[in-house]
């Protein structure tokens, strides 16, 4: 059993297939398949169930992934912590982000971080906010962008912003200077998977209920749906496209706010993860939320 086999195992499990895993780690697809097959022979059991529509981990595979992740984490810590004692921050930073924050908040941080710590290799992957929390809990990500509140997590605040109403052009509410959340009740509502909990909580606080007809992951998709008249929405100002055809943006009365933060996945974090966390926190004081 080799470290390469363990890295290949994790890549296949995380990517959900041999081809995507090969692309991620820079190996050929046959080499990835051979590495997994050799590992299965050594362990005497199948780690994946192979079907036409893809692969899934077996029960043994799930256990193997847990131990492989732990083994590789300790191996990487051996190298990076010894290097850190000598004043060098090295290793891999696994950073998970939500799409709305990647370009606006994370990319600038990564640029200055790379200048300060050029020996750190960054792996960035995106998902919805609940997915990011799961990756942090499972050890698949070292740091991640999440929404507050986040009880028990060590966090550094990135940004707080208001949410606004997105209406089809020509909608009766589009001419108002401000729109109440209750005015959106009874209309087809387009919800965002990531912002849904914040929006629904704001609706409950306003004593109303929104009629969710559609749900979309990407902000651009929501704006396109609003622009074609499929419904109304409430969207964050962070990453909001400017001048989207067929869409009118209006401030909300008593607008809900959303706060994004960087969270550490573990108190026993790698030097690279701690360095990035401290870099984001800057002169401010991180807090346990």
From TrEMBL:
Domain of life: Bacteria
Family membership noted in the UniProt record: Belongs to the LysR transcriptional regulatory family.
Domain HTH lysR-type: residue ranges: 1-58
Segments traversing the membrane: none
The entry's keywords: DNA-binding, Transcription, Transcription regulation
Pfam families for the chain: HTH_1, LysR_substrate
Glycoprotein among keywords: no
The protein, known as: LysR family transcriptional regulator
UniProt keyword annotation of Glycosyltransferase present: no
PROSITE patterns recorded: HTH_LYSR
Native organism: Pseudonocardia xinjiangensis
